[in-house]
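A favour, since you know our structure tokens better than I do. Go ahead and set the record down below.
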Amino acid sequence: MLTSDFDYNLPVERIAQKPAVPRDSSRLMIVDRDKKTMEHRIFRDIVNYLQPGDLLVSNNSKVFKARLFGELESADEDIDRDGKKDGSLILPRKVEIFLVRPMENTGVWQVLAKPGKRVRPGMRVRFASDFYCDVVVKKKEGDILVQFPISAEEVRTKANKYGHIPVPPYVKDEPHEIESYQTVYAKHEGSVAAPTAGFHFTPELIDILKQKGVEFTEVTLHVGLGTFLPVKSERIADHTMHSEWVDISPEAVEAINLARATGRRVIAIGTTTVRTLEGVASLAQFADGKLDAYSGDINIFIKPGFEFKIVDAMITNFHLPKSTLLMLVSAFAGDREHMLKCYQVAIDQGYRFYSFGDAMFIY
């Protein structure tokens, strides 16, 4: 299967620049994957499509201000010399550092840099008088390892003080408040991009669903580098996914296993939740058909032909052409052509796309 099989043409005016107000007033496409039908509703109408006993699973990861703008303070002699005068480098130079994820060693982070050609091992990037990092390794793939002299928690604290909200590049209307790029149930800080399918939920809608008998539980997946990397290979089988850190607590495992044992639906809010549940289910400890509590990295690429073990239905947004997320929802819908048809209908009907856009419920 080719990456081009998941391409479609989206008019730029269909890209949402801000969330709906109120959030549950966004549009909702209801997709029945067996009957291959679709309906058009408002998101708060999802109450009518959920049943008492359904278990909604959300990703409670919280976004931090991962975009940092700094200046290069030092350089080795072999770095790119644009602007060189009289044998000396013109410094400082402006550079953007995007924090992706902390590594195992204290203070070491995986980052992206823009412009990347200016950044070399041995250089220091200073963001404020009390906040800087040193470049340690630059990989061929484009990502970079830097060393902060402080812990990951302290890095996030300072990033929230000096940094900027990591809204996607297709969102041109700035600035946004951090609250506009968080779900109402965000708890555990660590994502560089929001689990956006959860944007449509309000505290009031959650209360209505609970009163109906719908149950809720939470998992954590900190969204990282894979969200920003396009599929460059011609064959999707050749694409490599980056690892993501997830956590499923014993309480969440108990709720999910009980729902499955009693024949109730497990409904994932967003592709990040799907990757968490199915990623952990793909590990060896799922051999008995039950999830176990897990905290650590997973690496899963869900594409057509994938056998889903946990998720019965999902809520998701409308995703970019040729993206791994569009491949995931096509796999869940069971029919790539029908999913692309749904996308075309959404375009024709004036749906809003991407992070701040409208939603789809596939069941």
Remarks:
- The chain is about 20% helix and 25% strand.
- The chain has two domains: 3-63+175-362, 67-162.
- The domain at 67-162 is CATH 2.40.10.240 (Thrombin, subunit H).
